[in-house]
Design brief:
The protein is built from one helix and eleven strands; from the N terminus they run E-E-E-E-E-E-E-E-E-H-E-E. The protein has 131 residues and is mainly beta. The strands form two sheets. Strands 2, 4, 5, 6, 9, 10 and 11 form a seven-stranded mixed β-sheet that branches.
């Protein structure tokens, strides 16, 4: 069974940091594009980044560029989202998603916001940044 499980969310003060995890099971992330998305109450969902596991190419949304960084642990089959200099506007439920690399080749470049292209989703983890 394909599964993505996010963890690491919590409450942090503005300026602080959090590291979210996206643990994959039932497939190997090597052959997948991983996306991170977030949904804040009353707002449209936002794509945070898209990452190609096959060649480590990553595109960040302008709103997080320079503050968020993706990394991976092959042994754990897990992708991490390191978030620094957090702002209250980063408050949201964060989701990771996955789609096979070959299905993303036509749209991957720079496409952080194409949530509808992803086949697998985690349950989300809440990040709250207090001012």
């Amino acid at each position: 069974e394909v599964q993505l499980v996010e963890s690491g969310g919590g409450l942090v003060q503005a300026g602080g940091s959090l590291r979210l995890s996206c643990a994959a099971s039932g497939f190997t992330i090597d052959n997948y594009v991983i996306g991170w998305f977030r949904q804040a109450p009353g707002k449209d969902g936002e794509g945070v980044l898209c990452y190609s596991s096959s060649d480590a190419t990553v595109y960040y949304a302008d709103s997080v560029k320079g503050r968020f960084t993706i990394s991976r642990d092959n042994a754990e089959n897990t992708v991490y989202l390191q978030m620094t200099s957090l702002k209250p506007e980063d408050t949201a439920v964060y989701y990771c998603a996955a789609v096979r690399t070959e299905y993303a080749s036509s749209w991957f470049e720079g496409a952080t916001a194409r949530s509808y292209e992803y086949d697998y989703w985690g349950q989300g983890t809440q990040v709250t940044v207090s001012s």
